[in-house]
């Protein structure tokens, strides 16, 4: 069976600085019609960074959509036409002050495929060198370095409360346990 939903009409509901929202009228596989609210996002990168002391580098920041602070791995939005690796290096330095000369792509994943097209490119860094953070003027973050055990506790207490960071913790835990 073909599950494709064909768009028969599209209406722009909102065009913003980061996202656009469109309403699609679609024909369903059974021939009936329905509506889909779609959030279009330019995509993002996220970074799994581990220090020489085997600590995961993260940032604490306030997330207005959640009305709370959470701890996350460094991440940021792709600029139009920007290569994800370039975005990753820029975001790493802007948010944490760290630089790296090596990036390995771990995975790409959709954050909320039921209503959004945001694709996150996840990278693992190589050796980190310290620099100076240069966050955007509307961005306030605190750099945190945590052991895997500390990060797992943050997941339990919901200080870490997003999928990309939970994935990063599990990825590094598995990687470190396989190198012992």
TrEMBL record:
UniProt GO BP: nucleoside phosphate metabolic process; ribose phosphate metabolic process
Top-rank taxon, per record: Bacteria
GO cellular component, one term: cytosol
Cofactors, names only: Mg(2+)
Keywords: Hydrolase
Pfam families according to UniProt: NUDIX
PROSITE patterns in alphabetical order: NUDIX (PS51462), NUDIX_BOX (PS00893)
Location of the Nudix hydrolase domain: 39-168
GO molecular function: pyrophosphatase activity
Family annotation (Gene3D superfamilies): Nucleoside Triphosphate Pyrophosphohydrolase (3.90.79.10)
Similarity comment: family membership: Belongs to the Nudix hydrolase family.
PANTHER family per UniProt: NUDIX HYDROLASE DOMAIN-CONTAINING PROTEIN, UDP/ADP-SUGAR PYROPHOSPHATASE
Protein name according to UniProt: ADP-ribose pyrophosphatase
Annotated source species: Alteribacillus persepolensis
Source taxonomy: Bacteria, Bacillati, Bacillota, Bacilli, Bacillales
């Amino acid at each position: 069976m073909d599950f494709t939903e064909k768009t028969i009409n599209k209406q722009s509901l909102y065009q913003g600085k980061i996202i656009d929202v469109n309403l699609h009228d679609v024909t369903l596989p059974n021939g009936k019609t329905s509506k889909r609210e779609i959030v279009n996002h330019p995509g993002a990168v996220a970074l799994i960074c581990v220090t020489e002391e085997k600590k995961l580098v993260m940032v604490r920041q306030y997330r207005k959509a959640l009305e709370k602070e959470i701890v996350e791995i460094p991440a940021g939005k792709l600029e139009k036409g920007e290569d994800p690796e370039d975005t990753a290096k820029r975001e790493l330095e802007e948010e944490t002050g760290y630089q790296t000369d090596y990036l390995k792509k771990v995975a790409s994943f959709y954050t909320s495929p039921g209503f959004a097209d945001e694709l996150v490119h996840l990278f693992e860094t190589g050796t980190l060198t310290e620099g100076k953070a240069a966050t955007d003027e509307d961005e306030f973050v605190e750099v945190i370095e945590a052991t895997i055990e500390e990060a797992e506790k943050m997941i339990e207490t919901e200080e870490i409360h997003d999928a990309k960071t939970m994935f990063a913790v599990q990825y590094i835990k598995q990687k470190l346990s396989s190198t012992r």
